[in-house]
Amino acid sequence: MEREQLGFRGISRRTALRLLALGGATALMAACGPAGQPGQTPAGANAPTGTAAAGAPAATAAPASGVSTTSGGTLNVAIADLGTENNDVILAQPNNPSYVIYEQLLRYDPQGNIMPHLAESFEMSPDGKVWTFTLRKGIKWHNGDEVTSDDIKFTFERYLSDESKSAWSPLHRQTVDHIETPDKYVAKVYAKDPPYVFYPDAVYGTYLTPKKYIESVGVEAFTKQPVATGPWKLTSMTPGVSAEFEAFKDYWGTEPVWDKLVLKQVPEESTRIAMIKRGEVDIVGVSADNAIKLRDSDGFQLRQIKASTTPALFMAGYWMQPGPTSDQRVREALDIAINRQELVDSLFRGFGKPAAGTLQLTDLHWGFDPVWYSVKYEPDRAKQLLQDAGYPGKFSDPTISIFSVIQGAFGWEPEMLQVISGYWEAVGVKTQVVPMDFTAFRNAWVGKDPKIMGGVATYISFGSAANSIPAQQNHMTSKGVNFSGNDPQVDKDFFAMTAELDANKRLEIWHKVQQEMFALHSVLGVARIYDQYAVSDKVGEWTGPDYLPNGFLIGLFGVQHR
Description:
By secondary structure, the protein is an alpha+beta fold. It contains 19 helices and 22 strands. Helix 14 (413-426) links the parallel strand 15 (400-404) and strand 16 (431-435). Helix 2 (13-32) packs across helix 14 and helix 17 (488-499) runs antiparallel to helix 18. The chain is globular.
């Protein structure tokens, strides 16, 4: 981004970020002058309504008119990437059009409780050995066929198969012994020992697919022209260019008010902005700086969703090496040396809130423990902790490597890590920022490459209502592949929780696990960043389930007319 977009006058962005990190806001403001105060909301700005997160910064509000009384037309949306051309949901990562058309048996409510969706009801037997899912009657596939329990069995068995690369498949394989369909609308999953009471998390991550249609046309044809149950039906897709949908008139739930939806792949933000200014698209995702410019200078309204982007700092394999991050006191010092509020206000222009939990954990989650929001900015105590740990003399190499990666469209990661580096340097920690391709870093991370272990990198997830206990298992425990937890007590308590049949005891153990994990300071939640979307004068309120992961795409059916 250009310096002027951030209000940095007469100094480079890198210098500004370093000033922010080393000297705090006072030094930055002194260098920038009065015109360069980032994160300031103009007086009189309206508070966001509808989908805005509580306590999030001000943005221009949509008219408080509720659900649209008008309908029709085409909603054009520019996004950075459509993803792969393959629409099969058992792949490692579904493409973005998949989130628009597919649905699950279960979904989360805004408080993180798992609830029926395509299912009318679900229940676990008292001994945890049988899960019963009862379908809503009359749900249609996009080709007109009725959804039945055979589709549930067929879908789950696809996720159980060796062909499935879905992140949810391991939990299916861990849990499912066999599946029966005693009724047209009832499927029973018989579980292995020991019981895993969070199996519904895997069901949430499982998108229902049509048995009869796939067996008729074959998997390859299905992936090119998928049939699903969602409010939008895919009509055409040109990989790397666009995907077009029409409203599904036989949808069992609330139908879109638009006749058509078009997702256009536009990687460059500047191009997306030019398109909305020319009236070619109705919704574009924009950076914080451009959001302010579009709002204040060009008069565009902004929207944001309840789910947040949550960058966290992982101390990968901290116990696998003798470096500084192997010491809990050093890790805690790194945690409390970060001025999160200043980082949100300045780098992210106020479109966020400081502090977040480990991977994905925010206050939208079931059983969220407020301890994750309790980290204070305490640079003096950080210096004392480092001294108590014998830093730097105790360590043969006191330098902490910060691997600077970019994940997807999150181009601000290197800038954020420069600021983090500055905060740590300010309390006496020696750092080295190492630019690295994310795929190469991730492969090295999973492969336990000694050159990576003990270093720090961001890992970005969605702070949404999805509980995702399997994701917590993946990095909180020694059974995971993220190597950010290796504590026997955490392991013991975590797996006691997943087998606990009493709901009250289960919640009690979950809070204990979170307290234990927090005390390790092995994953440092940085902030909850609320992505900003500029909208055309055709777009009204957003009423979709935007508190879910990928809530922007899932929630497009709830976009109203203005």
